[in-house]
Amino acid sequence: MEFNIPQSLKLEHEELHAELTRATRVSGKIGDCAKAVAKILHPHFIKEEEYAMPPLGLLSLLADGKVTMEMRDASKKENKMEYMHFADKLILHAQNEEEVLYPASILVGEYLKLRRIE
Predict the structure, then answer these.
(1) Distances (CA, A) of 70 to 46, 59, 80
(2) pLDDT, tens digit, for every residue of 90-113?
(3) What's the CA gap between 84 and 71, in Å, rounded?
(4) How many domains does the chain have?
């Protein structure tokens, strides 16, 4: 079964990476800090794109309860049950983002607007 990274995630990742790359070209402290961040984030981006993001292409199917027999049996057939557990963790991660992290980010932004801190 082929996993495709959701387009929204792929575009977001590409945009973040491009913006960070631009920041590394700025002279002075900003560029120096951006280079340090890029050095740390580059391996993270690679791992996300190779391991974490492709299975997320299945989330909409899983959320709709559209689990195929191929999906159900692949882990068992290949005796790799840890990947079935990994899929469960990915679903919980996505739910955590939608239920906690996104609303929290919005609240932080709203708070900063009220305090006029930018």
Answers:
(1) 27, 15, 14
(2) 677 777 777 887 888 888 888 888
(3) 9
(4) 2
